[in-house]
Design brief:
Blueprint (H helix, E strand, L loop, with lengths): L1 H6 L8 H15 L1 H14 L10 H11 L7 H47 L1 H12 L3 H4 L4
C-alpha cells in the first residue's frame, strides 16, 4: 500500500489530502529525515506554495508530524490566524462554561444551606426576614 502511494507523486493540482497521504507513506517507508527531504524537494518542484493544496490542514500536519514549515499564501496565513483566534475563544468559552457551572453549584449550595438552617431554626427566619424587610435597620437597633 505504501509503495503505491509513494509512486503516485502529487502534482500542483493534487489536493491537500493527497499530499498528506503521500508524506505519511514516505515517513512510514523512509523515516522522518528522508521523508522531509523528498517532500520538500517535490513541493518546491511542483511550486506547491501556489497550489490549492497549501491549506492550514496540510501546514499543521507537516509541522506536527515532521517539523516541516511551509509558507502559505497571504490569504492562507490570515485564515490560519483566524482559526487560531477561534480556537482561543472556543477554549475561553469552555472555561467560562465550567466557571459558570461551578458558580451555579456554589450559589445553589449556599441557598440550600440557608433554607436548611431556616427550617431547622424557624425563629431565626423571623429575624432574617425582618432584617431584609427593614434593610438591616432592625439589626442595628439594640435589643432591650
Amino acid at each position: 500500500m505504501s509503495k503505491e502511494l509513494i509512486r503516485n507523486i502529487p502534482t500542483n493540482s493534487s489536493s491537500d489530502v493527497v499530499w498528506i497521504s503521500w508524506y505519511d507513506a514516505l515517513r512510514k517507508t523512509f523515516g522522518r529525515k528522508k521523508a522531509n527531504a523528498l517532500f520538500t524537494a517535490n513541493w518546491d518542484a511542483q511550486n506547491g506554495f501556489t497550489s490549492d493544496a497549501n491549506t492550514s490542514d496540510l501546514r499543521s500536519h507537516l509541522k506536527d508530524k515532521g517539523g516541516i514549515e511551509i509558507a502559505g499564501s497571504t490569504l492562507g496565513e490570515v485564515k490560519d490566524k483566524l482559526i487560531g483566534v477561534g480556537d482561543f475563544f472556543g477554549d475561553a468559552f469552555s472555561i467560562g462554561r465550567y466557571f459558570g457551572i461551578a458558580l451555579g453549584v456554589i450559589v445553589v449550595g449556599g441557598l440550600g444551606l440557608f433554607v436548611y438552617n431556616v427550617a431547622r431554626k424557624p425563629e431565626s427566619a423571623v429575624r432574617i426576614g425582618t432584617a431584609i424587610a427593614t434593610r438591616g435597620v432592625s439589626e442595628a437597633v439594640p435589643k432591650k
